[in-house]
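Q: How would the structure tokens look for this protein?
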Amino acid sequence: MPAIWALGFAASALVHTAGAGALLISLAPDPLPQQPAPESSLNLQAHRIPRSDAVPQTAESEQAPESQAQTQGLAAGSIPQSTARLKAPAADSLEPAAAKASAAPQSQAPADRLASAAAPLSAAPAAQPDTTALPQAAPDSQPSPAAQPDTVPLPGADPDPQSAPAAVPDAPRIKAALAFQGGSGDIDPVSLAAFQSFMQPGDAAAEGDPLRDGVSGILAAVPCARLQVAFVPETATLEVRGHLPEDGLRTPVLAALQAQMGTDITVSDQMRLLPRPQCGALAGISNVGLPQSTDQITNPLLVGSDAHARVLDYSGGERLFFDLTAPDYPSYVYVDYFDAGGAVLHLSPNELVPLAEAAPKTALRVGAKEAGDPGLQITVAPPYGQEIAVAFAASHPLYHGTRPLSEPAEPYLDFLRAQVTAARAEHADFKGEWVYFLITTHAP
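A: Here is the predicted structure in token form.
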């Protein structure tokens, strides 16, 4: 009997063991096949430029013989002077008239003087005419009429002034009006409130500005985007700048902003596309510890985060290079290129372009335009798309030496953040900033 029990237990254990093994085999997951991963490539070619040293040579020149300058002085002399002599005018003598019984009628000059309205007479000149006295004539003879001046007294009349008529200036009439007229009807009160919020921000700030807060909330709610609006009062237009991660977000953003502006303010779409992961890299770049810009603090017409400085467009086969301007203080500039694969390419400094201090507001060339120019020679090639280049500027060097020409972006940004923190702790006068550019590449 005990043998039967032992045999039963052994058979049961064997059956349970086999069942457990079969269950474990059935529950084991099948291995997943390897999925193809997206690939991206960036063709870089670095050429070492042959250099040669110029041999200094002494310039051969001939000295011109020195010649004595010849000068001739002017003799000092007096200016000849002469005195003008007075010459009496020749006067015709009056001949005596014949004595007659009936004398010629006497032409007596009137004794009345000129009226006060006439101009005063000037004194006679010192030189008197050389006249010859008449010979003795008969007592009843009268002098010739030609000997006496025939004058006629002027009536004493006051001048008759005439007043000029008042001229009315021909000035054009203008009528003050807002930049928007509201069409044929009344102005939308929502648009009028938005116009006043941008043009007179102090009035709205005293009681809070719900419009600007609403616009800022719309811009900040878009994921993986940097958007900014600028109001143009001359045309009553709200320009929407910056970039979106996908084109499907464009219509909702424009509709929400148009509702905030009303019907009489036009919303202009100037947004570009910057897909992931490039848009996500900007979040890490902005957390490095350097400010980007403070334009919206002093410009009441701007709302939102500062976006890209400009857009650089390249076609396949062209060399990638661009110019930028250093800040208004001595600085060290680091320029990095963030590609679509999540890597960063150090355009400056690197093994070919050493780190150097830039003078305030000097022009800097990034990349090589020609074959003999210093810097990386980068040729645009597929895959094409939208990428970004970032320039960091600091008053003191962030690190010494060079880093690998290409490396993952995330560890590099963590390293840069730590270096900025250390530089601020070491230098009390440390300052810096950053700016980024959108780079668009397409087929030729």
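The helical segments are 2-27, 189-199, 201-206, 210-220, 250-261, 278-286, 295-298, 409-426.

The longest helix spans residues 2-27.

Upvote if useful.
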